[in-house]
Known about the structure:
Layout: E1 5-10, H1 14-25, E2 29-35, H2 39-48, E3 62-63, H3 66-70, E4 77-80, H4 87-96, E5 101-103, H5 111-123, E6 128-130, H6 138-148, E7 155-163, H7 185-188, H8 192-208, E8 212-220, E9 225-227, E10 234-236, E11 242-249, E12 253-260, E13 269-276, E14 279-285, E15 289-295, H9 298-302, E16 307-309, H10 319-327, H11 338-355
Parallel strand pairs: 1-2, 1-4, 2-3, 4-5, 5-6, 7-12
Antiparallel strand pairs: 7-13, 8-11, 9-10, 11-12, 13-14, 14-15, 15-16
Helix pairs in contact: 4-5, 5-11, 6-8, 8-11
Amino acid sequence: MNKKFRMGIIGCGGISGSHIGGIMASPDLEVVALCDILPEKIKEKQLLCGVADGDGVPDDNCYSNYIEMLDSGKIDAVSICTPNYLHFQMAMEAVKRGIPYAIEKPVCNTAEEAAILLEETKKKNIPHMVCFSYRFIAAARYARDLVQSGALGNIYHINGEYFQGWGLPNPKTGAVGSLVWRFIKEQTITGALGDLGCHLIDLVRFITGREFTRITADCDTFIHKRPIPGENIMGDVTVDDYIDIVGQLEGPVATNLSISRYAYSRGNYQRVEIYGDNGAIRYTLEDRDQLEINIGNEPMKNAHLWCAVPTPHKYHSAQMQSFADILNGRGDGLAANMEDGWKTQKVIDAAVIAANNVVKL
């Protein structure tokens, strides 16, 4: 019989809602504690957890200090849903106490921090998960099996895109959105690169099973000032709005990735195309996930005909249920762990270095 685990949530901002929803959908997890420095954010998530109906997280289990939550004895595991710059120290405190953790991405500020967290997590054998959530998209899992089974033959090219449009000015008024933490280097470390790019980097690693061996990159900022929330002044945007990464995976496999928060009409659009000598696949995600193929068929190949294929039920999975399975010792091995977090962070760090050494004409 599976054990039911008591979960604490550190950071009650937007992404925590996804964690809470996934926890509430799992028969093996329950939300018992919340932590945030903003009381109104805790109240929002209490309502989400059903406290208004007499169920959910009581006030006595709500904290402004995450150390107090970790030391409370009320939780078995924790979700870390805070801005990026806090991930390392919070995860390390959980590891010190032997508390399993699910951590948002990117895992740390640098690959050096990620290596330390990886080592300490392994040393204490702490169950954990890095929330690279697109590993739980059914079409991505199906693509992984097709690629790693050899169905495409020798792989030569990968093209990837991850586009959102929320950074754009209002098309009617020209007004720009507020200077939220995702635009401030001290809190987010990198912009589109860490926010979206880390997902695409991990998705390419996940589908292919191959590591990056070399990269170059270009990034820049389109809008340099945004209004500070609650104040009548503008503040500086100090991170990248887009980044393009060109390089190789083991093979070698030529790889091109394009990431932006300025793509008109895009909500949460991903596309990964993989080309081999016996076939090709195209994974896409926006309003739904889909896999298209052109594999090993001369008429399809010569007619340049791509076919959308249904995704078998076995590829459907849920992120927080996967974490519950890890806690219960029956994970499927496909969720990201700290080794994945560290390897992806190495690519992020390399992209920052490469982008800072672009030759200007």
